[in-house]
Amino acid sequence: MTRVLFVVTAADYWTLKDGTKHPTGYWGEELAMPHKIFTEAGWEITIATPGGQRPTLDRISMGRTAGLPGTLREVAAYLATIQDVLDVPASLGEVDPDDFDLVFYPGGHGPMEDLSHDEVSGALLTKQLASGRPLGLLCHGPAALLAARNEDGSWPFAGYRITALSNVEEKLNSFGRKASWFLEDRLRESGAHYAKGTLPLLPHIEVDRTLYTGQNPGSAKQLANRMVADLAH
Q1: Which part of the chain is the DJ-1/PfpI domain (predicted)?
Q2: So where are the chain's domains?
């Protein structure tokens, strides 16, 4: 059986440029849809967060502007079925990526606050990449890549083709314009070959060797289905 480690942010706010703390967490669709697709494929999933803290659902991700009504109903219904698991996640520092076939990071603004500089997560990502096993990150999830480092201090994802939420998409929200830094910019500055779709908000994924990334919440299903298809071979 394929075993998946789902690494979810534990942050419930995002500190903006003016010092205010915007309430956030994980994005509903980005966690629910890949989790559902992986489960339907017969995969076994373990959810872990920094310190084993209970993750917070970003309420904006369930609002009317977050997606089509049918999708939001599907997301809410599925999250309800796994709430007991979300309530008691494993502690990220106590899991070994070698015990899993795949590591996956959903997004939400939370990773910008905690996973972007979490050393435990960064070490896990470095080890996962070196292992040659698949690694998937979605929307703001790739912020976690920024914490990864090789022993010599270099960035292991330099030269990889990566997508993540674009600057244009970030600025569509009034609070997003107040960000102290933008993920697209930081990935480019770190040495990634950042790529994005032609139009904002439409699904877009990138696959470079064993690294799978999705640009935005609407990419969740496409990214998860691609990973299931590739691992089936």
Answers
A1: 30-228
A2: 3-231
